[in-house]
Amino acid sequence: MKKGFLQLTLVLGLTVAMSSCYTYTHTVGRGAQTGVEVKKMNHYLIYGLAPVGVSNPKDMAGGAEDYEVTITHTFVDGLINAVTFGLYTPTTTIVRK
C-alpha cells in the first residue's frame, strides 16, 4: 500500500514538474524600451484549431517601432481550457513597448 502510494506520488510530481506552458516571444526593432505593457486575450475553439478572435500585436504597440511580443498560455488560460475540456482555448498576447 505504501509503495503504491509512493509511486503514484512520484509519478504525479514528475508530471507536474515536467509540464510547461506554451510561450513564444518575438522582438521587433530594438525590443521594449519604455516598459509599457499591453495585454489582450486571444480566443480559439477546439484545442486552438479554430481562431475566433485574435489580437494584432502591431495595433497593440500603438505605432511604436521597437517592441516585444509574447504569446503565452497563462495559468488562467490553462484552467479555462481544462474546465471546458479544450472546447475553448484562450491564449494571452503581451506587448511591451
Question: What report would you give on this structure?
Answer:
This protein is of the alpha+beta class. It has one domain (21-96). It has 3 helices and 5 strands; from the N terminus they run H-E-E-E-H-E-H-E. The chain has helices at residues 2-18, 57-60, 75-83; strands spanning 23-28, 37-45, 50-53, 67-72, 91-96. Strands 1-4-5-2-3 form a 5-stranded antiparallel beta sheet, with no helix packed on it. The relative contact order is 0.26. The model has no long low-confidence stretch (mean pLDDT 86).
* SS field, number of helical segments: 3
Oligomer: single chain
The separation of the N and C termini measures 56 Å
Question: Total strand count, please?
Answer: 5
Strand order of the largest sheet: 1-4-5-2-3
* Coarse structural class: alpha+beta
Keyword list:
97 residues, alpha+beta, five-stranded antiparallel beta sheet, 3 helices, 31% helix, 32% strand, elongated
Nutshell version of this structure?
The protein has about 100 residues and is α+β, with helices and mostly antiparallel strands.
Write the topology of this structure.
Blueprint: H1 2-18, E1 23-28, E2 37-45, E3 50-53, H2 57-60, E4 67-72, H3 75-83, E5 91-96
